[in-house]
């Protein structure tokens, strides 16, 4: 037989064969060094491989019923795996001789995968991976095969095939455009009715989306396929798809937290935009009494927190708000179809859905409505069945209700659900936890739809601010703070707070703010105008009145005089002092206003006649209200020019005239279109810095918060945990023990004082050393005399003492 195969003793000796069996690893190394000299040995091993395949298939047909595959002769499977790996390594050196080998190995794994033992499956799969890496096999055929073999119950093979598919597509996405064609294969397998294959295809798509390989508008069909998997015939596929859509944003947060270096760089960049006046910091630490210093320091801390919170929200808006639901072609149809399946309560198997599955469907529908601002009015009616305090996971249901609210929904459609939450959660006989959750949900719903609240209901809910429970009082105070910003007229006078500008009014249904210019470009124009007039050192001192678009969203200090008055004040101030501060000095004015009584409003008329006060040391603030000017003149006791004060008083008394003068001054300013109309990157960077300084001024000048716009609210996911703020949940025994152990970490072990002394090391104490000292001679003699007298006295007493009658007498 050796002659028929063309073998010679020299070739067998060169191949390293000591007996009838070849040493494949040694032969493999020699073939890689000299492929032409070992072609005969290659043909021999290739024929042995074919024979091993035929023998394996015959044994598999005979013992097909065995569970572990070929159990009678394991050497056949071992020889087959060794020869398959050998041929996979040397295939690139013999492309013509082994042209059919990749197809044969692929057919072997496809047809006989179930009959193979686990070790042989892994060897054949590794051989196919090696052939694909050497470009001897087409990736499309191998991808479909590896998706099929993952359905077998072999854990090692499933892990190997899945990791290879993900890594291969990830590498191809950088250089090879063929990876887009692989999407069709995976998506077509997801659409099949076979549950196991569809599950593996869904897992593959989700992993590639989490790895940000098939992410973005170019791969929108991947996100659409995952969303459409919610309507799969298999309940397991539907639940997996729903869970991925809900948890995707949490996965994004985890990925962002892993990149600590990038976060540190971003934080350092954001911190550069936080601008706090040096003068305000100096006053908070060095000026005034101890109580006033504490108030000023607390005010600075609140300002810093609010500024950082806004900057953090703006930085996270571009990354953490992405969801696969953004790529839906017809979100209205998708939400209606999912709601119809939820309302029927029946799946394909003619059984009702579990409460967990229905809850996930509610949250996906609400998320879709919020992202795309859909009109799905029947969804709010459906939520009324679950908006009850005794329902399981009611906080998540209420979070879904809040998520589904936006300014495009008419208030009449949400009013029944809103009133049911009010009646079911917020009443005197309800538990404190339910009242706190109800108040928080009411606040979030009114934040999105302002017309839901009525005056009588708001005044009733505001009374809960006096409750002893912190969660209830905090919820009521947050509701009052919200309506101070959006509609103060619904509150009673004592809850409206100190007026700081025009009274805000809620938007009407369908009303929207339309930008006619670049946002905040007026800040750049003002800074350029001041720099041209050689006032660059005071470019951030005056707090300008925002445009009409911002009036409905934030409270504005009433210091909006005309340009001419501001220039006169700045010219007079330059003659006296120089101010190098960056923030408006209205902090001191606010602190003085807090200490003054409400009787200043009645004294403004008398102060208009005989006011004699000097200019302020700060001098860079143009007073626009009679109350501010009167209070400062009374508190500081300094003189002010009569002309400037009368002009400011007139502008404060006639707020309409002040607004008209501001509009005329704004119209007189040259627009960007008159110059060139083009903003550079430096201009946008400067606008960003000026906006940060303006936010710092507003944060220092007032309390409260700025109401976010509807787009930010729709993109941001509602966290159910925030609806339970300040609520103390009952701890389990394990949690209590963890708290106890955490408090004992820095505490030393308890020991008695005697035990501590016994373990003492380092010599005797000072008290012991005193007993070992030699006493002076006088002390020694005195002690001897005292002891002698004591003994003499004892002997004298004992001699006269009666000891009883003797027994022998």
UniProtKB/TrEMBL annotation:
Keywords: Nucleus, Protein transport, Ribosome biogenesis, Transport. Residues 314-323 have a biased composition (Low complexity). It is found in: Nucleus, Nucleolus. Residues 762-807 form the SDA1 C-terminal domain. One of its GO terms (cellular component) is nucleolus. Residues 732-749 have a biased composition (Basic and acidic residues). Residues 255-266, 529-553, 561-626 have a biased composition (Acidic residues). It comes from the Eukaryota. Residues 86-467 form the SDA1 N-terminal domain. Residues 783-795 have a biased composition (Basic residues). InterPro entries: ARM-type_fold, Sda1, SDA1_C, SDA1_N. GO terms for biological process: protein transport; ribosomal large subunit biogenesis; ribosomal large subunit export from nucleus. Residues 255-328, 493-513, 526-640, 706-809 are annotated as: Disordered. Required for 60S pre-ribosomal subunits export to the cytoplasm. Belongs to the SDA1 family. This is Protein SDA1. It comes from Eruca vesicaria subsp. sativa (Garden rocket). The lineage of its organism: Eukaryota, Viridiplantae, Streptophyta, Embryophyta, Tracheophyta.
